[in-house]
């Protein structure tokens, strides 16, 4: 029976027993195994499934807004499309943290979000497609068969906010708009596939809720908890590495503002805040603090405080990335770097060790 794991997620369980035999026979020191089933159920039913449903519903509203824009071509319909796009970014960013399970099958994740585009190859593909303006390319089915760079949120962001987007007003049924409508429809369909997989009662949700021989994902409670720990740690790392350090690594390194995600639509910090909101929601709603032994509950309070500090800091950053990286503003980014590192250490080292698990990482993106 094949067990599916995220290719970027290499998590090693380290038992705290003194012998290999003892590691096999006993649960990790500190892990409250009795709490695992309820934690897994809440993670699935109160966080993951609602998160994907919200994303799919938002994508459906976005598709409708794009249809209205293409039909009317007014400033009002463009503003509505942009506002709905911003909402979809938020809902996606909340659930984006779950980079395991159905969303990584058949490259669904990359179909929804192609990022980072380090050499601008994806941008050039989008620009070339718009310049070509072949009506045959402006359907959901056509887009679904093309490069991932042409399918997802970053492509639609360029349609709505990139060079030439002003032409969306005053034109009805332009190729650029119809392409954007097709991209929105494709995102809606991709999100729907993930929702369908998670909603199937005897599918992945049952596999996650019931670790053991009958599960396709987790042989036991330890593997299940390790997966949740992995979502938290890799999600926090993603905030630091892929959302912040992708364009700002500190005051001694030249910033690269055009590498910031969603910089055109000024959604960089909104997306990061939603990533953190998603992580905190998983941590709190799943009740992951319940996995800690009674004498280690102070770690949970510290993690709560770290999340609060980050979620207080991010909204204070200037949405214009060129301004955010200016000398006058860099101190805020440095604070964010330090706070994000603190969160990673707290979850991985302190919480992980307290429940007898340790997370190790192997990212294959070359950084």
UniProtKB/TrEMBL annotation:
Using the record's annotation, list all stretches that form the Imelysin-like domain. Answer: 48-334
Task: From the UniProt annotation, give the residues forming the signal peptide.
Answer: 1-22
Q: Where in the cell is it found?
A: Cell envelope
Q: Which GO terms describe its cellular component?
A: cell envelope
Q: Which coarse location class applies to the principal site listed for this UniProt protein?
A: other
Q: Which UniProt keywords apply?
A: Signal
Q: Locate the transmembrane regions by residue number.
A: none
The protein's name: Imelysin-like domain-containing protein
The protein's organism comes out as Rhizobium johnstonii (strain DSM 114642 / LMG 32736 / 3841)
């Amino acid at each position: 029976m094949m067990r599916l794991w995220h290719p970027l997620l290499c998590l090693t369980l380290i038992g705290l027993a003194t012998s290999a035999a003892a590691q096999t026979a006993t649960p990790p020191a500190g892990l409250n195994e009795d709490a695992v089933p309820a934690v897994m159920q809440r993670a699935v039913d109160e966080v993951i499934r609602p998160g994907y449903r919200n994303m799919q519903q938002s994508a459906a509203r976005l598709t409708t807004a794009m249809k209205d824009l293409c039909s009317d071509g007014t400033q009002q319909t463009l503003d509505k499309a942009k506002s709905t796009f911003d909402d979809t970014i938020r809902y996606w960013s909340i659930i984006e943290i779950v980079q395991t399970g159905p969303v990584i099958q058949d490259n669904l994740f990359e179909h929804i979000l192609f990022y980072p585009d380090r050499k601008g190859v994806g941008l050039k593909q989008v620009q070339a497609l718009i310049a070509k303006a072949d009506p045959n390319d402006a359907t959901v089915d056509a887009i679904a068969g093309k490069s991932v760079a042409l399918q997802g949120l970053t492509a639609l962001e360029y349609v709505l906010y990139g060079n030439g987007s002003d032409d969306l007003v005053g034109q009805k049924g332009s190729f650029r708009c119809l392409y954007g409508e097709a991209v929105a429809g494709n995102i809606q369909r991709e999100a729907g596939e993930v929702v369908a997989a998670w909603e199937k009662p005897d599918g992945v949700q049952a596999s996650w809720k019931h670790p053991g021989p009958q599960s396709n994902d987790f042989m036991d409670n330890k593997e299940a908890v390790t997966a949740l720990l992995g979502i938290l740690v890799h999600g926090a790392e993603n905030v630091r590495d892929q959302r912040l350090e992708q364009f700002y690594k500190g005051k001694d390194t030249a910033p690269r503002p055009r590498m910031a995600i969603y910089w055109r639509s000024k959604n960089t910090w909104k997306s990061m805040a939603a990533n953190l909101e998603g992580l905190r929601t998983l941590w709190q709603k799943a009740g992951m603090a319940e996995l800690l032994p009674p004498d280690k509950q102070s770690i949970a309070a510290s993690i709560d405080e770290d999340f609060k500090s980050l979620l207080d800091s991010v909204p204070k950053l200037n949405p214009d990335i060129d301004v955010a990286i200016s000398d006058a503003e860099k101190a805020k980014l440095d604070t964010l770097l330090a706070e994000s590192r603190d969160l990673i250490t707290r979850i991985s080292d302190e919480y992980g060790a307290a429940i007898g698990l340790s997370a190790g990482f192997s990212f294959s993106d070359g950084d």
